[in-house]
Design brief:
Number of helices: 2
Radius of gyration: 24 Å
Structural class: mainly alpha
Helix content: over 70%
Shape: rod-shaped
């Protein structure tokens, strides 16, 4: 079911403009927080992968 932009804008027009603005700001802050968390976790996964690969390479070079 496609979203109709006119219906979305019409339903938002029923609320006071300050309330729509506050909700948009809160949604934006939440989106930035979520992106920050995802970036942090992806960095941690990359760091762990580099440590594991480095340790495996070291073991391979020592016992080669």
């Amino acid at each position: 079911m496609p979203i109709n932009i006119q219906t979305l804008l019409h339903s938002a027009a029923a609320y006071p403009p300050w309330l729509v603005a506050v909700c948009a700001v809160v949604a934006g802050i939440f989106a930035l927080w979520l992106v920050g968390k995802l970036l942090k976790w992806s960095l941690m996964v990359i760091m762990v992968a580099v440590l594991i690969l480095g340790a495996a390479t070291l073991v391979w070079l020592v016992f080669r």
